[in-house]
Amino acid sequence: MNTIGHLINGEVRLDDNRTQDVFNPATGKVEKWVALASKATVEEAIAAAEAAFPAWRDTPPMKRARVMYRFKELLEQHAERICTLIGEEHGKISHDAAGELQRGIENVEYACGAPELLKGEHSKNVGPNIDSWSEFQPLGVVAGITPFNFPVMVPLWMLPMALVCGNCFILKPSERDPSSTLLIAQLLHEAGLPKGVLNVVNGDKEAVDTLLHDPRIQAVSFVGSTPIAEYIYSTATANGKRCQALGGAKNHAIVMPDADLDNAVNSLLGAAFGSSGERCMALSVAVAVGDAVADALVEKLQVAMKPLKVGNHTERSNDFGPVITRQHQEKVVGFISSAEAQGASVVVDGRDVIVPGFEDGFFVGATLIDKVTADMSSYKAEIFGPVLQVIRVNTMQEAMQLINAHEYGNGTCIYTRDGEAARYFSDNIQVGMVGINVPLPVPVASHSFGGWKRSLFGDLHAYGPDGVRFYTRRKTITQRWPSASVREGAEFSMPTMK
Ligand code: NAD
Q1: Are residues 211 and 307 in the same domain?
Q2: Is residue 174 a contact partner of residue 202, using CB atoms and an 8 Å limit?
Q3: Is Nuclease one of the keywords UniProt gives this record (predicted)?
Q4: What separation in Å is there between the alpha carbon of 20 and the centre of ligand 1?
């Protein structure tokens, strides 16, 4: 069986440390192993990045961007292979994996604008014959730690921007589905990235802790669950590093009495069950305003959910695949059972789904739970599975209070035909990414991605303009060239414009 290694100084290699099983979640079988980097291996990767930094820092931004132009082409040429690897280890259906890759490529395209993004700010004559400018310098060696649910897109939120800004990078992908991440790192080298500028270390807590404590690492970007995000943020910042740590979510959709219900139902299906609900922007709670809306919504959802197909990634007609592990499958099923035990009504039950030919796979069928209340554990926690819960409220204010009181604030959406209500909602909701009749308001690459409250720790959001700020350090230079013809005496008061 194949062991997935690390990519250090341009070479794929193993170390003598531990390994971990990598499953195909559709078959439930271990199909590969992944090497778990030791502290020494991570330190070797950091040393390679440090050695590569001076030359990469001094490479003109246009040349760094050219690597990204070629990288984009290679990602497109190898799309089928990348999507197959995502399917084999994550379980994502091929059309969904293609969507993930495309959203990642858009970040590569944005980073191709490096010369424009890095050109800084300039003011002539801030004082007599004095000019001043701000430039954005790279930080040095930076690290990224990524989750299983987007093994290609999330690394592409980080890598293109960090690299075109002139940094060297250590990436620690998820140990559950590392192959597609390793492949894109190899493609970056094929695109012309010099050795050592990007290093991939597969691993677990040992590798992450080494990155968090090593003084050579200047900044850490993390995407994953909230408890780990809190740990990463507190440890990295305590060690003097810049850090952005994106965490978990519980995303609500308000369905107003005037909403186009058929449209809401259609878009809720994809947003709740796509990728088995394993998206940090998945809409997992529908808040129906009024019992009439709730009754109609539940009835329509029940009908629309009947034809949904769960199965293996290779079958394009499947709507979604398995969840990531047996333990996670049990956790999702446990939340459905707890909601039932606490008084909610399981209207469509995906707990016992069996996929013919894949009987040992980690599948959970699309599940709809009605009459959920805010005190239930299935409501409080992030389930991260194909489960849509319906909460019934009487007014829009009540719906908004519910959302604002939740500990997470990643994404939300309102379905309405009322522009005033939509505007009030977007102005006052305590959530970082808001959709108006748009179920998954994931910002495009030219904006930045991030939640509020316990969905993000740190000041800057991921990618887009905030990505440039995160991966650079501002330096402001004030310059005067004294002229032989204008000699001045000494000045002892604070310089001001005269
Ligand atoms: P996770 O927190 O278990 O793992 C994320 C990364 O942290 C992995 O690389 C993992 O190896 C590492 N890690 C895990 N435990 C660790 C520990 N004890 N110490 C140090 N490092 C550790 O998350 P996951 O299960 O891979 O991903 C799903 C989670 O990610 C969900 O909560 C989801 O909402 C969240 N997510 C958030 C966003 C966002 O943008 N906010 C995007 C994608 C996923």
Answers
A1: no
A2: no
A3: no
A4: 17
